[in-house]
Design goal:
Layout (H helix, E strand, L loop, with lengths): L5 E6 L14 E2 L13 E5 L7 H6 L2 H8 L5 E4 L20 H15 L3 E5 L7 E2 L2 E2 L4 H14 L2 E3 L1 H12 L1 H5 L4 H4 L6 E2 H17 L16
Parallel strand pairs: 1-3, 1-4, 4-5, 5-8
Antiparallel strand pairs: 2-9, 6-7
Helix pairs in contact: 3-4
Length: 224
Amino acid sequence: MTINKITIFLAADSTVQSYDLDEKNQGGWGEFLQDYLTDDVQVINHAIGGRSSKTFVEEGRLHKIVEEMKEGDYLLIQMGHNDATANKPERYTDPSTNYKDYLKMYVEGARKCQAEPVFITPVARLHCEKDQFINDFPEYCQAMKEIAKEENVVLIDLMEKSLAAFETLGYEEVFTYFMASVNETDFTHFTKKGAKQMARLVAEGMGAAKLPISKFVNLLENQS
């Protein structure tokens, strides 16, 4: 008898998406999450660049995941980067109103399938002032935390975890995590090296979350 693997679906933006093999520099943490999980779990990455919580839904991407999801699966949701682009109204959501409404749609979609939603706060950008790394999306992080509490959803605070990691590592090392180290202009997207380390932080968060899936987290395989 074939036993179906637990599937982790990723709904997110370009900081999470998988990049083509011919893209040797840029990476998203969704590319590397599987590296920190045992073979009992498979990751299906639906993350795509330029999407907010709103456009991901409006384009039918959440619906597609819901059609594939089964009981016991997981939906990891990282939204906020593109929600904050007020100059692009097609993407923008207000953190105190419709951003929260859209997040609830992801929760509802997962639970409709008897799957487990997990919120992940937006990952940090490379923004440092006076030797202090900055959270560029505080309102969205707070809104996500509020909905997590309201809807009883597990939350991995990737913003906090990434900022803490950056503080420990220092700017010179963290700079190599971002595409700015390649093209001098991109302080949002990760190099493969940086994406791999963000995936490790997510896996650590999963391991600490005391979810059924936590037992499948394996941080020993990839120490670098």
